[in-house]
Specification:
Largest sheet: 8 strands, mixed
Number of helices: 11
CATH topology of the largest domain: FAD/NAD(P)-binding domain
Number of strands: 21
Shape: globular
Helix content: 25-40%
Number of domains: 2
CATH architecture of the largest domain: 3-Layer(bba) Sandwich
């Protein structure tokens, strides 16, 4: 049964909502976490946790159990089929976590859920928010079954189609999908697969990225004109044959999970409306290029949870304004960065030779490779706590 009152009502029990709830529960805040789904998702979806995100998660006790269940990638390589164009090394990052951690989103959520329960929290599932009223002292959420929850603050962590954002009247603008859709599949392969790197292949037919996940699973992502809703073995094999390495191509033996998506680039007009605050995909969505989405959301979550705990502990309300004012420019910068990476990866055939030449030339400079490593890892955000990072040095950003 739902409580009638709570300090913070968090809507959405994905990784962002869970991380927000854990941060609050660790500080002794009365938090109620609801989600419309009856059961947690079991598909992998987001598959990388970057170094700076691990540093932030370490503040709430989540990094160690997460690292224990993931695969560490020491580098990111871009290839023109077999020929190397660029290698970005993560093992020299100035961090306690000098790697990209490859781990299914379902595992990330399970780790955070266990932590939340260890602090006395309960995930209340099967509750859909249908109404939200605000006043000077808080907000009241109305659920589909007619129940109400009175809260001092409400956090919208309920994704791109956020009910909290819509009910609060916060705009969500930006360009929508491009002409290409993306196919994503988690597969098992028979053949050699790099176990410590993420590889982006540029072929004449288009781009293809693959990354190792725990348990011998490989994540494959590619931009195609008309991606199937559920890619099968034959479809993924054709992608590998036409876009992946030409030497020793692995054979697809099983598609564990597959999906398709189109790219959206949107940022909420504001991250705060009185007692209502946004985090994660409820506040910003963008291309998956560079694996930035969930990472940005997790860093939102811990920052917001800490600010809420400080305010509820007697701190000034302006700490919440500061959260909104700082996180929105960071989100806008990451959206631009991901959009540029997508444009670089999906240039038309007639411009691909020039793209490849520019990549080789620009990233022959060690400083450029290091800067890209800092951007991908999120560590450039750590270096600029009061604003967005400086623009990345890479082609295609005009």
């Amino acid at each position: 049964m739902l409580p009638r009152t709570t300090d913070v009502l968090v809507v959405g029990a994905g990784p962002v909502g869970l991380a927000t709830a854990v941060t609050l529960a660790r500080r002794g805040v009365d938090v109620t976490l609801v989600d419309r789904a009856e059961q947690p998702a079991t598909t992998s979806r987001a598959g990388v946790v970057h170094a700076y995100t691990l540093e932030v998660l370490d503040r709430i006790g989540a990094a160690t159990p997460l690292v224990a269940r993931g695969v560490r990638a020491s580098r990111f390589t871009v290839r023109d089929r077999d020929r190397p164009l660029l290698t970005v090394r993560f093992d020299a990052l100035p961090s306690r976590f000098p790697y990209a951690l490859l781990v299914p989103q379902s595992v990330t959520e399970a780790v955070l859920a266990d932590l939340f329960r260890s602090h006395g929290g309960e995930i209340r599932r099967g509750h859909r928010l249908t109404g939200l009223t605000r006043d000077d002292t808080g907000a009241t959420g109305t659920l589909a079954d007619g129940a109400t929850v009175r809260a001092r603050y409400v956090v919208g962590a309920d994704g791109m189609h956020s009910s909290v954002r819509e009910l609060a009247g916060i705009g969500f603008s930006g360009p929508d999908a491009g002409t290409e859709s993306f196919a994503l599949a988690d597969v098992r392969l028979d053949g050699p697969v790099p176990q410590d790197e993420v590889v982006l292949h540029f072929g004449t037919a288009g781009m293809l990225a693959w990354a190792p996940l725990p348990g011998g699973v490989v994540r494959v992502v590619t931009a195609v004109a008309d991606a199937p809703e559920h890619p099968d073995v034959a479809y993924v094999q054709r992608l590998l044959d036409t876009r992946g390495p030409t030497a020793g191509t692995a054979r697809v033996t099983e598609v564990i999970w597959g999906s398709r998506f189109r790219v959206h680039h949107r940022v909420a007009e504001r991250f705060r409306a009185g007692p209502v605050l946004l985090a994660g995909d409820a506040a910003h969505v963008h291309s998956p290029a560079g694996g930035q989405g969930m990472n940005l959301g997790l860093r939102d979550a811990v920052a917001l949870g800490e600010a809420l705990a400080d305010v509820l502990g007697g701190g000034p309300d302006r700490l919440l304004d500061r959260y909104a004012e700082q996180r929105r420019p960071v989100a806008e910068d990451v959206v631009r960065f991901a959009a540029r990476l997508t444009r670089v990866a999906t240039v038309p055939p007639g411009r691909r030779a020039l793209r490849n030449a520019l990549l080789r030339a620009v990233f022959a400079v060690p400083a450029a490779r290091r800067r890209l490593a800092l951007r991908l890892s999120g560590l450039s955000e750590r270096a600029h706590p009061d604003g967005p990072p400086a623009p990345a040095e890479h082609p295609g950003h005009g």
